[in-house]
Write a structure and sequence with these properties.
With about 325 residues, this protein is α+β, with helices and mostly antiparallel strands. The protein is about 20% helix and about 35% strand. It has six helices and 17 strands. The protein has a 17-stranded mixed β-sheet that branches. A hairpin with a 5-residue loop joins strand 7 and strand 8. The longest helix is centred in the middle third of the chain and has 17 residues. It is globular. Bound molecules: pyrrole-2-carboxylate. Pyrrole-2-carboxylate binds next to helix 3 and helix 5.
Length: about 325
Amino acid sequence: MSLGKDEKIKVIDSHTGGEPTRIVIEGGPEIGGGPLIDRVKKFRNDHDDFRRAVIHEPRGADVLIGGVLCEPTEPDCVTGVIFFNNVDYLGMCGHGTIGLVQTLYYLGRIEPGRHKIETPVGVVTVVLHEDCQVTVQNVPSFRYRADVELSVEGYESVCGDIAWGGNWFFLVKDHPFEIKQGNIDQLLLFSRRVRSCLDNQKITGKDGGVIDHIECFGPPESSHADSKNFVLCPGGEYDRSPCGTGTSAKVACLYAGGKLNPGEVFRQESIIGSIFEATFRLPHLDERQTLELQGTGPLERVVVPSIRGSAFVHGETTLVFGKNDPFRLGISK
Ligand code: PYC
């Protein structure tokens, strides 16, 4: 952002199962063309103050996920998107994509039906249903390691799986907490310690990928769900939705453990009671060949998850960054 003058950008705010998304529809940063993964680097190197100004207080909040629309490199995509949070950029964001689809519909840019959206980690196919629910067919997901033991300070040893669902997750198998809103403080403390422990012990995803999401599970409260989760996000906040990429990682683990078959429905309830419905299919032959070339693995455990949920637009705002405002670039920590 330039420091010398007042600046304005237009955003649409929505929430998906309670988790907020802010899509920048006018006034995004100049991040050029080329592969989205390269544009993320340019965004991070040259325009990180934009991310902080949009997400941090006083205009935003730690829980908020932002998205900047950009020209896709794939001609059949309706848009490209780069998601970001209070600390960095996200490969993919499930609840954010559902919010984005609802935003594009609200703006009259898409109609119900099937569309493609390009993200830094691949193209996702979305369906806007007539009832306004959205299905996101996510990027291929897989369990990378099973039953990883951690010694977490203050707790018994903790065991979990490492999985990719568009972001890296540690899915805790055993923890001492009931998954309910009254336990959020304890769940935050516990999952932050798990996160630090992974960092300290240099436990990563494939190719050194940082595991920056921690997921804990328990029995559902709703009779319409199969499981209830709590998800710690990279910047220390928790996901109010069941987490699209986290639910993708979960179905990949269920499949790898022989507990869910292709086409079967798995319903994930969030800590606040919102629900995503997930299914998966196995990759088609041409997709397997591409995954093989990309070195995505292990191929026998790769699934293509679909996540269905609802989002609601709740704000259409012009954000003003006044040149004399000492907090125009957000309150930094
Ligand atoms: O829905 O994938 C998701 C997500 C990631 C972080 C917050 N939500």
